[in-house]
Amino acid sequence: MPKNRVIPFGYCMKSGEITTEPKEVCAVAEIFSEYLNGSSLLQIAKLMESKKIRYTEDSDRWNKNMVKRIIENEKYLGTDKYPQIIDEDIFRQANEKRVRKATTLNLVCDDLQEIRKVTYCAECGEKLFRKTNGKGREYWNCGNPDCFKYEYRLTDQMIIGAVLTVLNTAIANPCLLEYGGEVSTYSPTADVIRKQNEINQMSDSIQVDFDRVKSEIFRLAELKYDCCTYNDSPQKTNEIKALLENHEQLNTLDIGLFKSCVNRILISHFCTIEVELINGVRIKNITEKDNLKAKLSNASFDLCGQSPQFAAQTVQNIEEVNNEHSIECNDNSCQSADGNKP
């Protein structure tokens, strides 16, 4: 066994030729088997250490990069110098899985960047930041130094799970997307009424100054325009409905759908997550505080293992922006707080 590995793990030099090292060959075969059976690179490294398998002559310490190099080393398929150790089909399956996991991880990181752009503290309105602690565990917190820190560790999976729950609820219950109100409103001010009266008096005069009346009419039009408001929520509601109509329930985050439907994510210091859609409707995702602590201590937060059922997150309350009433969602039915259909 070489002191510093020049020859790949699993091989050794005898009589000037490269040949296999029986103990290491068994370890290589076990590494591929464990990886295909679902073990992570780090778990496999720890397994090798527990079995006291030496990677070099001086050390039986392993890390996930050592395991990764073994899995992706094509020499195990056999060359003119290296005898074959791993079956071609097993090698292909393991490396397809490795590439797939690496691609998925990169996509999730990109997704988290998109989520962070629209995630705010519900208390102060500051954007949230994402960091990892000394153990590599991620957490989100408010970026405002004058604001209180979060009561519990806020994780990627909690936010992604809440978004998935909201989108799946909206897919199953299109009626929750309804937003009342007129497309446009006109409320004349005292200035508008006064200007209208002035024009009327000028028009009724015996000697009409047409140029002045024309100028005042244009001024009146400007004042009236300022009194008009446009509400695009009905249009946005139709856009969301079109996107979600006949859409299958999501198992993983569709970042394109997220960007098209979600305007903001608001998170309180007790980890209540509220998703505001582009039409102004807010869906609040509430998790029992007593249950949350147990969930955080028992759950395994896997960045790529997204599930809409995470942490018993259920939609308990639907609220609308600029609207005093709320909507509650129960068993795929929706009812307004006053008992009437929205």
Give the helices and strands, then pairings.
Layout: E1 11-14, E2 17-20, H1 22-36, H2 41-50, H3 64-72, H4 88-117, E3 119-121, E4 128-132, E5 138-142, H5 156-172, E6 184-186, H6 190-204, H7 210-226, E7 228-230, H8 233-244, H9 255-261, E8 262-267, E9 273-277, E10 281-286, H10 289-298, E11 314-320, E12 326-330, E13 333-336
Parallel strand pairs: 3-8
Antiparallel strand pairs: 1-2, 4-5, 6-7, 8-9, 9-10, 10-11, 11-12, 12-13
Describe the 3D structure.
It is a single chain. Helix content is 42%, strand content 18%. The relative contact order is 0.11. The protein is an alpha+beta fold and 342 residues long. Residues 287-342 have low confidence and may be disordered. The chain is elongated, with a radius of gyration of 32 Å. It contains ten helices and 13 strands. It has a seven-stranded mixed beta sheet with strand order 3-8-9-10-11-12-13.
Secondary-structure-derived class: alpha+beta
Determine the mean pLDDT: 78
Beta-strand proportion: 15-25%
Unreliably modeled segments: 287-342
How many individual helices? 10
In the sheet with the most strands, the strands line up as 3-8-9-10-11-12-13
First-to-last CA distance: 75 Å
Helical fraction equals: 40-55%
Alpha carbon gyration radius: 32 Å
Short description:
The chain has 342 residues and is an alpha+beta fold.
Properties at a glance:
342 residues, alpha+beta, seven-stranded mixed beta sheet, two-stranded antiparallel sheet, 13 strands, disordered C terminus
